[in-house]
Amino acid sequence: MDYYKAKFNLTSKVGNTINLSLLQAAKDVLCSMAGDAGFESFDEDENGCINGYAQKQALDKQALNNLIKAFPFENIEISYSLEDAEYKNWNKVWEDRGFEPINVNEKCIIHDTNHTLPLDTSYNNADNILDITIDAKLSFGTGTHETTYMIVSELLEINLKGKTVLDCGCGTGILSIVASKLGAETVTAYDIDEWSVNNTIHNSQINNVNNILVLQGDANILNNIDKKFDLILANINRNILLNDMPTFTDKMSSTATLILSGFYTEDAPLIIDKAKSFGLSLAKTNNRNNWSMLELISINVGT
């Protein structure tokens, strides 16, 4: 396959040096948004520029230009150059390097196949620590991103024993696997990308989880499922969440919970209003570095 390499440069519109934490957040947002334009993977060069890699036939240049115009950090300007890239699995560099183990509230450790549980802690001897292994291959969801972290953190506080769970846009399958290991009776997961479906199946296997049904498609695939769910998880971008809200609510049992993330804090009111129009009420919210998570229930529950 032939690839493009895009070099993204982030600068301040007002001429000031960008705060390092703000710059890192902006880079994370850029990578997340650029995925919608066809980019598969990213790395950072020695000058702090972000390099993105996309198959030539998959890159949507108009979508890329539109996302740059709509970039939510108003004082940051993005420029980019595009060139042919040497053929290779650009994501393999990241896969081989992996990520450092992630500690979620002292209750769960997420690590890749290159890392075991930290030897300098008692985690590997603690029965109450949830051990999750994620072998990420071209898929979103390792726990390093704020949205995934917040949902995992919330799952750790929910009694999932015997519950049915739906994971929308499953990526690596991390949320499905956490839910299964926390006692969910069954988990149904779907993703539009074939590599995410395959990655979820692979990660389920290495975590010895066998109650996850993985499907390929968008939310329309749920029309073929005659089933209601006790918990629905959707860590997807704002526009897809808004578009798929009717399908999510249709698949909720009478006492179900819907947990949404993948959007910025300033977008939360829009999503809350949309949810209310479908008979849902805000039960809980959480924010982490300008990313938001919402927990919604039926307005009629308990009445």
Walk me through this protein's architecture.
There is one protein chain. By secondary structure, the protein is of the alpha/beta class. It contains eight helices and 14 strands. The strands form three sheets. A seven-stranded mixed β-sheet has the order 10-9-8-11-12-14-13, sandwiched between helices. Helix 5 links the parallel strand 8 and strand 9. The longest helix has 15 residues. The protein is globular. The mean pLDDT is 85.
Walk across the major sheet and give the strand order: 10-9-8-11-12-14-13
What overall form do the CA principal axes indicate?
globular
The residue ranges in which pLDDT falls below 50 over 5 or more consecutive positions are none
- Give the number of DSSP strands: 14
In DSSP terms (H or I, runs of 4 or more residues), the helix count works out at 8
The biggest beta sheet is recorded as: 7 strands, mixed
Quote the beta fraction. Answer: 25-35%
Structural class: alpha/beta
Roughly what is the average pLDDT, rounded to an integer? 85
Helix content: 25-40%
Radius of gyration, whole Å: 19 Å
Question: What is the H/E string?
Answer: EHEEHEHEEEHEHEHEEHEHEE
